[in-house]
Specification:
Blueprint (H helix, E strand, L loop, with lengths): L2 H11 L4 H8 L3 H8 L7 H11 L3 H5 L3 H38 L7 H26 L8 H5 L2 H8 L1 H15 L3 H24 L1
Helix pairs in contact: 2-3, 6-7, 7-11, 10-11
Length: about 200
Amino acid sequence: MKFGERLKQARIEMDLTQGQVANDFFITRQTISSWENEKTYPDISSLIKLSDYYHISLDILLKEDVGMRESLEKKEVSEELRPVRRNLILIDLILLVVLLGNLFNVFKISGGFLLCILLILLCTISALSDLNNFDKSYSLGLKYEWQKYISGDKGKKYALILPTLFVIIGMVLLMLQMMSVGLPFLFLGIVFFGAILLKNRKK
C-alpha cells in the first residue's frame, strides 16, 4: 500500500474528516488531500507527527513508497542548497547597488562592463527562480492569505516587477540621451520579460 493510501485508510478508520486533521495540524484541508493523493509529501517533521497521530510506525508509512523517500531526499538537498541561495541573493544585492551607483553618477561604469553586470544579474535571478521551484515541489501547502497572494498565478505578477523597472529605467535614460546606459537596461528588461513568459508557457 502506498503512502497516500495508508494516510487515507488510517484517517477513515479513526472516523476523521480531512478538515479535522488539517485543523489539528494547523494546515489547510487541501494539504491533507494533496498528501493522500500523493501530489505532495510532508516534510520529516510532519511525517513524525502523522506517525504519532495515526499510531502508525514510520517504517510502515514509508514502506514500498519510492515517491515519499525521494521527497525526503529532496528535502535534504534543499537544506544543503540554502547557503547557495543566500550567496546568490547577496550577489544580486551587490550588483544592484553597483547599478544604482552608476545610475546616480556615484561612479561611472563602461558600457561593456555594465552589460556584463546585467547578464550576471539575469543568471543569478534565474538560478534563484529555479531553486524556488525546486522548493515548491514538496511544499506543505498554504495556510495564510499573504502566502496565497504571493504564490501561484498572482505571484507571477511579482516576477514581472524587475523587468518592468528595467524597461522603464532604460526608456528614461534613452530620453535623457544616455544611450550607453539606457540600451543595456532596455535590452535586459525585454530579455527578462521573454524568459518569464517562456517559463510560464512551459508550465
